[in-house]
Amino acid sequence: MALTDTVPAAAPPAHEGILRRQSLRESAARTYARSLPIVPVRARGLTIEGADGRRYLDCLSGAGTLALGHNHPVVLEAIRAVLDSGAPLHVLDLATPVKDAFTTELFATLPAELAESARVQFCGPAGTDAVEAAFKLVRTATGRDGLMAFSGAYHGMTADALAASGGAQRTGVVRLPYPYDYRCPFGVGGERGAELAARWTRSLLDDHKSGVPRPAGMILEPVQGEGGVIPAPDSWLRQMRELTASRQIPLIVDEVQTGVGRTGTFWAIERSGIVPDVLVLSKAIGGSLPLAVIVYREELDAWQPGAHAGTFRGNQLAMAAGAATLAYVRANGLAERAGELGGRMLARLEALAASHDCIGDVRGRGLMLGLELVDREADADATGARPADPRLAAAVQQACLDRGLIVELGGRHSAVVRLLPPLTITDEQADAILDRLADAVTAAVRTTPGPTGSSPTTLRGTTP
Ligand code: PMP
After folding, report:
1. pLDDT in tens, 52-86
2. Residue 132: CB within 6 Å of ligand 1?
3. Which positions ≥6 away from 434 have C-beta within 8 Å?
4. Domain count of the fold of the chain
5. 459 C-alpha vs ligand 1 centroid, how far in Å?
6. Is residue 208 located within the same domain as residue 299?
7. pLDDT tens track for 168-193
8. Residue range(s) defining the domain that contains residue 219
9. Fewer CB near the terminus (10 Å): N or C of the chain?
């Protein structure tokens, strides 16, 4: 598909009618539909075509699900093969050749130490279901109840997953500082900030008067996604592994978003070399269809038969699409490609930040990239960073959409513009994404007053 937009003079009525009916009939909780009022009707790779005839470069990718982009031929072929074979589409948790092939492919991607003694539990279809299953597993195995999770985390929307997420207001989960270089809670950032964060965790675990009982498990994301694209330093991840292992606390790593090559290694944990006790997987493993699993060390398998059940755990189409996706990413070195291309994109984003005061930070790993938009006039706060500017971020997102680019917002204040393109994009597509984004940032700062209400911004070294 061509990358250029076709912008018809007027959107056809069908497009407007669908959007109007959606806003009348769907819940007030709808999310992406509010900031991205498009009606996708066709899609291939990076490109989505709307009912209004416009084309968009999709850097949301189903919230990081589409490792191979939309409707990749190997995914479609795998789905068609199941449909044409006459295989049952619904099988509860029964064994099937499709499931067998998926499990074999999945195990082939795991770190050897985990693969040797791994068990897999097919969960309900969403990432949040797998997170709940992980918590239940470690509670059963340890006989303990509490959990440790990190500030800024996102693990899902069901009760326990939400409780472990950064926005939660519930008890039962002890919140620990996540190493956030740009807004370091200790005001120092870098390796030193991560070291202090680890030290705080260690002291909570070891101080008998900390008020924190030994938890059933600790859950972390190797790169926080929804939290604003925050990669954890390898040294900090290793410390979390050591702290939990030496205290018999199962470490749950949530790779729902970072998995399947996105961050430059097949699983993000590979970079630091840590091996978790439980790996939580969803999104890309289903090759665009709903699929979620936990993979864990067999010592934790203290569940009784039926301890964790569910009707929709046997989605054959998702397993076939997922196996094809895992195999394709592996065979074509797409993780390495994501690392290398993501590195070059990050360098271009850094150059963009150097000429725009409103970009406080750019960061990422592989093809999980973000730019944090800040109040360009405010002074730095106690963390050394300037306050977030969610209004400008929303304006950038809108300006991107106007230029045929779909981006996601994330972070504490929805002020981080996020890029999650498919791992299959070409160099030219990456350039097109960044050209549109740069243009959108420039346009948004020109038209959006600063949070303090002052006039539009100055671009460093350029005339506005
Ligand atoms: N964990 C992480 C790290 C996620 O990014 C998400 C979704 N963005 C979830 C869990 C929850 O997945 P789902 O929306 O499929 O329930």
Report:
1. 999 999 999 999 999 999 999 999 999 999 999 99
2. no
3. 345, 348, 349, 352
4. 2
5. 36
6. yes
7. 765 689 999 999 999 999 999 999 99
8. 74-331
9. C
